[in-house]
Amino acid sequence: MFFSLADPIVNFLIFGIIQGSIYALLAMGFSLVYGVGGILNQAHGAFYVIATYIFYWFFINLPVFGLLIGIIVALIITTLIGGLVYILLIKPLKDSHVGVVIVTFAFAFFIENLVGILVDKQYHDMPHLIPGYFEILGTSVPYHYLLVIGIAILLVVLITLFINKLKLGKSIRAVAQDAEAASLMGINVDRILAYTLMISAFLTSVAAVLNVPVDIVAPHIGWTILLNSFAIVVLGGLGSLSGSVLGAYIIAFARAYTNFFISPILSALIPIIVIVAMLVLRPRGILGKKEID
Amino acid sequence: MEKLNEKISGFPAYFKDWIKTFRGKVTVLCLIGLILLPLANPNPYIMGIFNTFMIYAIFAVSWDFLAGYVGQVSFGHAIFLGVSGYATAYIIKYFAWPWWSALLLGAVIAVLFGIIVGVPALRLKGPYLALGTLAMSLILYQLFLMGSLGIMWKNAFGTDLFGTDGLGQVPPISTNVDIQYYAILIIMCLSIAFLTHLVKSNIGTIFRAIRDDETGTSASGINTTKYKILAFLISGFFAGIAGGLYALRFSGVNPGVFQPLYSFYAIIMVAIGGIASLSGAALGAFIFVFLGEILRLLGDIPQLEVLGGFAEPIFIFSILLILIIRFAEHGLLGTLLEKLQSLWDIVLGR
What is the pTM of this model? Predict the structure, then answer.
């Protein structure tokens, strides 16, 4: 870590909040796509990788405004790719669930290898978006962490308002409840699903830009992202946004706790323990709706 | 017993009918080719490619059985490949068991690992199997990469297991290249024959019913969960056999076998051959391995350096898989073989 291990409890709390905020953004996007379209998007990690590498490329090649331009371009391009993935890959295969899952899985590999070829396959580090530290209870905390928490809270609030208040958000909820009835009411279901994927890609790219400075840049990180998103949405409930946010913080604190106080091995095992336990005990997740089937 | 006798006495007639069909002819031709190959005395490199192909064929067929005939998609078949690879290598290296018993035990251990995530996931409908198996393989990959776990294991048992180096120096099936080749060939034929027989039997009908309409099947009084789990375990067993052979063929395993990459291999091989066709999956494995080898050789040619890394096999195969699923969901070989069959019919003047 970047700070001294003077006070493990403070470190654990800070680390849990930071990771939880980033996981929340990732899991919300993943859960939204599943909840609205029933699409299990295995390319979720690929969106993260795309945003990360665009950001990284601008940072390396543009010395002056690289960070800022990198962020803007990464957000825009990733969002557009999210829409394109829906239109080109998912929409034509909508009738076959297996097809969607396989094609997004293949897309994830495509992106992983593409960035490996275009950039390289090495590990890289990135600097914090805002340099500098301040002190809490004798532990120095980067200003970057405040930015992460602030943006995460802002986005969670904005997305919740958007889904609940705006007309487009209402259309998204209508499609989530019953796509056929929604299309009879004059809602263009395909357009709504494309928007949903774009929102998901946008949230993922924001998480990428915030997380990359505290994590590493490497082509295969997408799989770790996908794994954590899986565990979180299974815990919170597939398709439930509030469940995703809650699950994100639970998983983040659980991983941080085991990492700091027990052992990193247990921390790595947490996602699968959570998935198996939830599938046995409560498959619909903490806040998921009961499925009628 | 009577039934068995009837089957054995009826076999020559069945075989005669089967060989008259186009499919039978192609299969027999391929088999004869594979059996005769060592007589042509190819160099060890070619033999090695054929061994790899046959191991991957078992792996692809096991995935196709589960996805194509039971409709349950696993994105973590690498679990079976990896666990069985490690178990087989470990047993041979540290307990000095004969290779075939280690192989069987390795596959059984892999199946036990599959139960952890497979049973809870298969009780439910929805994407839980795809999700759970992928998660499990990713976690096993992380665990086996951990050096600290490797040191702990070494202190406790005095042997290597975890860590980036994996398990090395596993003795091969036989130092004789031909014996090794035939052993793998026999195991491949037995695996494919067993699974083909299974999908044609009564249980196979139940499997296909579950794939086509799970609710309807359970309404007919069939315990779908039981059969789904059974199919998952059978598939896992054969994937485990492939994993054990993999460890024997490459004289060791490393944590890389748990990567989602290997699950991706199974899917691309089946996609090339056409889903729900076991022999197609084996042919798909053949094309996959040879195309991969050709692409790798292309990458070594200095004149083609302009391509950069774009000739990298995985990159090409990921594009290929996207295109196949998007435009030709029934696979490439199925259509190709149909064309070939109509050509064959024209030649015979039918």
Answer: 0.89
